[in-house]
Amino acid sequence: MIKKILILAITFFTLTGYSQNLERWSREKAQDWYNQHDWITGANFNPSTAINQLEMWQKDTFDPETIDRELGYAAQIGFNTMRVYLHSLAYKADKEGFKARMEEYLNIADSHNIKTMFVIFDDVWDANPKIGKQPEPRPGTHNSGWIQDPGYPESVEMADSEELESYVKDILNTFGDDERVLLWDLYNEPGNNDKANESMALLKNVFQWAREANPSQPLSVGLWKWDLKDLNTFQALNSDVITYHSYDDPQAHNRIIELLKTHGRPMICTEYMARTRNNRFSNTLPLLKENNIGAINWGLVNGKSNTIYAWDTPIDSGEEPVEWFHDIFRKDGTPYRQDEVDLIKKLNSDTP
């Protein structure tokens, strides 16, 4: 009888996919992890010579010299974390080369004492990514060449695909115990570009695949649009650490913080800082530090992504806007605003 019960139990666990690895971190484990790190500050990083994720990671355009120089700018102002987007097409085209370039990037970042938060999938901007030579930037247009991963309708049609599962698991199995990797951000802004709940299947699967890979780093998917109730609920209830985006003014941002505190988990704001929306270093970075929330702004160096221009207000002439939307440095390392980098350095140096 005991033997029969054991066989039935093993069969049940096998069929249902039950595993200790599939469990979300406890609040205590998440807080212990967060307490082991200095205050997390940094930027979303794409080198100035890359218009998008593919241009960053493809063999012919991977640019370690620029990456090293620009991460040096970040280190000089005390940043310790970069959020960096991967792309499954770069992996598909050259699996071992792609992982080797990830290793090279991590070596460069580590030389500047910078950890990395990798982003796996993405629902933002162009729905038709293509391997090979990437387009030139459209003058004065914000992120004119940024691409979704895996694209649309692929994000729906391939949600259950072995190809994407193999990609996710290979990357996490390769770097899942790497101390240079801070966190896995599994899916950027699921539901964007009017996909809404069409993104749910891939969102659920990427969490499942990542749990099965069982990395030592935490998993998260950032909250970003508050009326996507089904997606938000799943993201919040499955993330080890609560991550979110806010380009709001301080008053609205503070309301978001108070709501998210109810989860009782460490928090990292993985996108903020849009000057013309009154979301600035001067009024947002101190708010995040006061609440012990990690702070990852959008943009480091002005480059081919054109993120000094606002989302919906292109400048066709390509002339510099009166006020930059994102980014901190010019290509030569000169700060856009010296008072901002002075504040960033001060807040980072005040960290115990």
UniProtKB/TrEMBL annotation:
User: Which is an annotated Pfam family here?
Assistant: Cellulase
Give the span(s) annotated as Disordered.
133-152
Keywords of this entry: Glycosidase, Hydrolase
SUPFAM superfamilies in alphabetical order: (Trans)glycosidases
UniProt cross-references to InterPro entries, sorted A to Z: GH, Glyco_hydro_5
The GO molecular function terms of this record are: hydrolase activity, hydrolyzing O-glycosyl compounds
Segments forming domain Glycoside hydrolase family: 66-300
GO annotation (BP), single:
polysaccharide catabolic process
| Entry's family note | Belongs to the glycosyl hydrolase 5 (cellulase A) family.
What is the name of the protein in this document?
Glycoside hydrolase family 5
- Biological source species: Gillisia limnaea (strain DSM 15749 / LMG 21470 / R-8282)
